């Protein structure tokens, strides 16, 4: 049977994340090894040459599944018939900055992109916002796409989730693949809450294996501030790990997963998070949709940290009220 070609848009195609992300997508890591794809690469005019060069290298890689590449600075071409969009193109932060400091510069990118997605993308469009501050940029894009169901807009917190799995596996000296039921609640910011309350490794409860001091004073801040740590050590913000996590997110959203993951999705009011905020929840994916893991009991420590994230995202929302 011939598979339909899927169109995948990537913004910021000349940037450092795209330089990893595009090779994973072209390899078939999002839709799978049976699905041919076309790439739609969006850049700003000044960086179009860079994106053209990236397209040349993609062609030189002779990926069997890659059927066509469009390079453009026009939103209507970039999102024409798009099935999956990675909104990466935005300024990264430098040393000493918080991601929310980027809101004034980056926020205005996402309204026009949301509107173009609304007007030109395919009915099954799924949008993953990576550009920072990702949760609030995704909120802006979602608001601009009035005819697209809200749940087709996600922000990336899978990198935070993967960081938490890796840090925990290393601490315990155990395989991170055996860790289940871990979540990073909230905002992709230093306030995020990597939560081990329900986590298991093999047949063990993680909470029985770690001490509270390490959890609160080392693990949570280490994961929450890992982006800044990478910038400090590498001199530039994370790129390949961000690309890899973006592929993990989109792959699981489309293909499904019963293993808990963290996706920042529009809140339905679960766990006291105001409706509509793009918030990292414990999720599984079924039938092409994320579902929030429900029925979890929250203790006071969890409630406080979840509320802090909701308050921070409400403040970011208020700061971009003119863009909504
Ligand atoms: P980069 O500066 O290397 O590349 C960004 C690219 O986006 C540039 O080529 C730029 O020309 C382009 N761009 C800017 N405005 C655009 C627009 N309106 N339309 C299309 N393209 C546009 O940056 P990077 O390292 O690739 O990071 C991109 C973004 O991703 C940053 O905001 C960064 O903070 C963020 N990020 C998020 C996560 C996450 O976990 N959510 C992780 C890593 C990085
Ligand atoms: C990350 O978490 O690595 C990215 O959001 C980049 C950053 O600014 O920290």
UniProtKB/TrEMBL annotation:
Superkingdom of origin: Bacteria
Q: Name one GO molecular function term.
A: L-malate dehydrogenase (NAD+) activity
Every Lactate/malate dehydrogenase N-terminal domain range: 7-148
EC number(s) in its UniProt entry?
Answer: 1.1.1.37
Reaction(s) catalysed by this chain, per the record, are: (S)-malate + NAD(+) = oxaloacetate + NADH + H(+)
Domain Lactate/malate dehydrogenase C-terminal residue range list: 158-321
Binding of NAD(+) occurs at 12-18, 106, 113, 130-132
Q: Has UniProt tagged this entry with the keyword NAD?
A: yes
Alphabetized UniProt keyword annotations: NAD, Oxidoreductase, Tricarboxylic acid cycle
Q: What does this protein do?
A: Catalyzes the reversible oxidation of malate to oxaloacetate.
Q: Which family does it belong to?
A: Belongs to the LDH/MDH superfamily. MDH type 2 family.
Q: What is this protein called?
A: Malate dehydrogenase
**Annotated substrate binding sites:** 93, 99, 132, 163
The processes (GO biological process) annotated in the record are: malate metabolic process; tricarboxylic acid cycle
Q: Which residues form the active site?
A: 188
């Amino acid at each position: 049977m011939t598979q339909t070609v899927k169109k995948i848009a990537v913004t910021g195609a000349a940037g450092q994340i795209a330089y990893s992300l595009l090779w994973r997508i072209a390899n078939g890591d999002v839709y799978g090894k049976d699905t041919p794809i076309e790439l739609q690469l969006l850049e700003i005019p000044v960086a179009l040459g860079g994106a053209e060069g990236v397209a040349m290298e993609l062609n030189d890689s002779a990926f069997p599944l890659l059927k066509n590449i469009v390079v453009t600075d026009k939103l209507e071409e970039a999102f024409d018939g798009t099935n999956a969009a990675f909104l990466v193109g935005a300024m990264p932060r430098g040393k000493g900055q918080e991601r929310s400091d980027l809101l004034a510069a980056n926020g205005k990118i996402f309204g026009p992109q949301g509107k173009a997605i609304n007007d030109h993308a395919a009915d099954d469009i799924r949008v993953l916002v990576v550009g920072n501050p990702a949760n609030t940029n995704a909120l802006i894009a979602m608001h601009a796409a009035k005819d697209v169901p809200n749940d087709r807009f996600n922000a990336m917190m899978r990198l935070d989730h993967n960081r938490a799995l890796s840090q925990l596996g290393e601490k315990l000296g155990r395989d991170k693949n055996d860790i289940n039921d871990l979540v990073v609640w909230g905002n992709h910011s230093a306030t995020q809450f990597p939560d081990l309350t329900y986590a298991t490794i093999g047949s063990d409860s993680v909470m029985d294996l770690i001490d509270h001091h390490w959890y609160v004073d080392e693990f949570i801040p280490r994961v929450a501030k890992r982006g800044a740590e990478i910038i400090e050590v590498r001199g530039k913000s994370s790129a390949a790990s961000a690309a890899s996590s973006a592929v993990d997110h989109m792959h699981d959203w489309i293909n499904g997963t019963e293993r808990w993951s963290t996706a920042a999705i529009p809140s339905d009011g679960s766990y006291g998070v105001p409706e509509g905020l793009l918030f990292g929840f414990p999720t599984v994916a079924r039938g092409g949709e994320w579902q929030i893991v429900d029925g979890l009991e929250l203790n006071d420590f969890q409630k406080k940290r979840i509320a802090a994230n909701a308050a921070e995202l409400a403040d970011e929302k208020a700061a971009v009220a003119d863009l909504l």
